[in-house]
């Protein structure tokens, strides 16, 4: 299942800059990130890496505001798993492929989030993050293939 065309197209390293993000500060505040971390994140760059080993897909994330600190999650498409976020929330998370996009649904109190990753052109992906907080908040970030 993990050998899907969407997963295969995401394999490798991707880099973003907070300058390429829309509404990042509001989104990070909505998901409960502390103000000092929001400020640092909004001035940083991040590197993500997607790898596959059999049915297991691993997504790794490293930000320039915490150099050397890599956060990784391993999952199988369609299989729910428990995820602990950087803000300390414990969520039920499921990745699925829908309409040529990778969709991550995070279910937990006090709100749910959906992150949709799509390749918009060769070497460029856009992640659209939506938090159903009150009020609902969304963010988009662009990542370029390394």
Account of the 3D structure:
It is a single chain. This protein has 146 residues and is mostly beta strands. The chain has a single domain (5-141), classed as Lipocalin (Beta Barrel). It is built from three helices and eleven strands; from the N terminus they run αββααβββββββββ. The radius of gyration is 14 Å and the shape is globular. Belongs to the calycin superfamily. Fatty-acid binding protein (FABP) family. It holds the Pfam family Lipocalin_7.
Task: Describe the structure concisely.
With 146 residues, the chain is mainly β. It has three helices and eleven strands.
Features:
146 residues, Lipocalin, mainly beta, 11 strands, 11-stranded antiparallel sheet, ILBP
Helix count, per DSSP? 3
How large is the share of residues in beta strands? over 45%
Strand pairing plus helix content: what structural class?
Answer: mainly beta
Mean pLDDT comes to: 91
What is the CATH architecture term?
Beta Barrel
Low-confidence stretches: none
- Number of folding domains? 1
Specify Rg, calculated over alpha carbons. 14 Å
What is the name of the CATH superfamily? Calycin beta-barrel core domain
Multimeric state: single chain
Q: How many extended strands?
A: 11
Using the coordinates shown, work out and report the CATH topology: Lipocalin
Question: Mind summarizing the main beta sheet?
Answer: 11 strands, antiparallel
Distance between the termini: 25 Å
Which CATH class is shown? Answer: Mainly Beta
GO molecular function: lipid binding
Family: Belongs to the calycin superfamily. Fatty-acid binding protein (FABP) family.
């Amino acid at each position: 299942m993990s050998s899907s065309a969407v997963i295969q197209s995401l394999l490798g390293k991707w880099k973003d800059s907070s300058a390429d993000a829309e509404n990042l500060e509001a989104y990070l505040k909505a998901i409960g990130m502390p103000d000092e971390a929001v400020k640092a994140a909004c001035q940083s760059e991040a590197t993500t890496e997607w790898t596959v080993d059999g049915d297991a897909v691993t997504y790794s994330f490293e930000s320039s505001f915490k150099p050397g600190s890599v956060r990784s999650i391993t999952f199988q498409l369609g299989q729910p798993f428990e995820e602990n976020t950087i803000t300390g929330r414990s969520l039920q998370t499921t990745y699925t492929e829908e309409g040529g996009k990778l969709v991550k649904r995070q279910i937990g109190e006090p709100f749910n989030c959906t992150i949709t990753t799509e390749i918009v052109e060769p070497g460029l992906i856009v992640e659209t993050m939506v938090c159903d907080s009150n009020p609902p908040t969304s963010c988009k970030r662009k990542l370029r293939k390394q």
